[in-house]
């Protein structure tokens, strides 16, 4: 009997919130047709075999809070709230370099279609906005590029829009790519962390989701600490 990979964070009559581990797809994707395990099916198991409706998505390598509705009406209401920007998300990331203490990244992004057959076609460019705050910095006595030491930051990210790979692309845009990002990061730094900590995961985690409950109207705050593979890396920051 397989073990359910999701940790349940919250449940009521209308909602189910879980912690998704890094490496697990939320649902079937044309990019990963060979995959057979998805957060959606594990959430359905937690829901007694009944259908659940994902309210948002997390990239496969991103871990953290994932919210499902337990009925279509609740899914519709929360979907509208997401579109209206009424859902607040917080992420934690380890990035290359010493990021500024605070900042706003206002940088439009071109759509990235999942279907490879569409990638040769012209895609629309959409507004994308991310706020961030630096929590800690460190300087390691290792030479990875041309300097005798290597600098890193721990940052909180607050996306105000929901574009595909927004946080990863935005941090690359300001020259502080997220460690472990194979597509938008720096290979030498990714390899160093993979070798040092024994795994090469993306160091991005969804740690908090705030919504107005679609039925009670009360503010609901869903939190989850980063999984152990992420917390192991935080030992490089003395003040954390």
Automatic annotation (TrEMBL):
<dbReference type="InterPro" id="IPR020103">
    <property type="entry name" value="PsdUridine_synth_cat_dom_sf"/>
</dbReference>
<keyword id="KW-0819">tRNA processing</keyword>
<dbReference type="GO" id="GO:0000455">
    <property type="term" value="P:enzyme-directed rRNA pseudouridine synthesis"/>
</dbReference>
<dbReference type="InterPro" id="IPR006145">
    <property type="entry name" value="PsdUridine_synth_RsuA/RluA"/>
</dbReference>
<dbReference type="Pfam" id="PF00849">
    <property type="entry name" value="PseudoU_synth_2"/>
</dbReference>
<dbReference type="GO" id="GO:0003723">
    <property type="term" value="F:RNA binding"/>
</dbReference>
<dbReference type="InterPro" id="IPR050188">
    <property type="entry name" value="RluA_PseudoU_synthase"/>
</dbReference>
<dbReference type="InterPro" id="IPR006224">
    <property type="entry name" value="PsdUridine_synth_RluA-like_CS"/>
</dbReference>
<dbReference type="GO" id="GO:0160149">
    <property type="term" value="F:tRNA pseudouridine(65) synthase activity"/>
</dbReference>
<dbReference type="GO" id="GO:0008033">
    <property type="term" value="P:tRNA processing"/>
</dbReference>
<comment type="function">
    <text>Responsible for synthesis of pseudouridine from uracil-65 in transfer RNAs.</text>
</comment>
<keyword id="KW-0413">Isomerase</keyword>
<feature type="domain" description="Pseudouridine synthase RsuA/RluA-like">
    <location>
        <begin position="15"/>
        <end position="173"/>
    </location>
</feature>
<protein>
    <recommendedName>
        <fullName>tRNA pseudouridine synthase C</fullName>
        <ecNumber>5.4.99.26</ecNumber>
    </recommendedName>
</protein>
